[in-house]
Amino acid sequence: MMDVSTEVVVAVIGGGSALIGTFLGAYLNKRATLSTARELVEIERFKYAQDRIWDFRKESYTVILAHLRKASNFADKVFAGYCDEQQHPEVYFASDDRKNDDIASWSAWDTCRAVFEDNLLTLSDDFAQQFNLLVHSFRTIDDNDLPPEVAHKRAEIFSTFYPKLLRIAQDEIAPSKVKRLGETD
């Protein structure tokens, strides 16, 4: 049989082991909880940063497209002025209306380009690529062409690219449909 000193040693070792196990479990649980909390904080920070970028991108698209629409409207107005049957194209060319509409169109376009350049880091690659195609499309205009032809080409370039850029922005901001497996455009 066990003597009293052996029973005390077994009880002390058993109790000590249970106590050490409890403290070790609590310590490890605390570390796991802290680790999980840190991970959750990092996830929330990332989500917050993504939300801020998303909001900034949406605002950038809105401003860029508003100025592009304004430039397009004035370009259309200039072209329409050359097509007005009530007025000869040369008279319209010399008019203050044409000059003011031309200035307004180029001013809106300059602002549009400046906003694009200022926000380029937050814009999607598709939007940036399409916008750069728009910019380069103006190189096809020959300054030696007649003013009505130049006005027509400008209006056509704006009216061609505006809907494309608008569609890209809309699809990114509020996707209209989810593609199903095997579905094509």
Describe the structure.
The chain is mostly helical and 185 residues long. The protein contains five helices and no strands. The protein has helices spanning 4-83, 89-94, 96-118, 125-137, 147-173. α4 (125-137) runs antiparallel to α5. The longest helix is centred in the first third of the chain and has 80 residues, at 4-83. The relative contact order is 0.10.
Task: Please tag this protein with its features.
185 residues; 0% strand; mainly alpha; single chain; 5 helices
Report on the biggest sheet. Answer: none
User: Element order, helices and strands?
Assistant: HHHHH
Beta strand %: under 5%
What is the CA-atom radius of gyration, in angstroms?
Answer: 34 Å
- Please mark out the parts with pLDDT under 50 across 5 or more consecutive residues, or reply none: 178-182
Quaternary form: single chain
Write the layout of secondary structure elements.
Layout: H1 4-83, H2 89-94, H3 96-118, H4 125-137, H5 147-173
Helix pairs in contact: 1-3, 1-5, 4-5
In short:
Helices cover about 80% and strands about 0% of the residues. It has 5 helices and no strands.
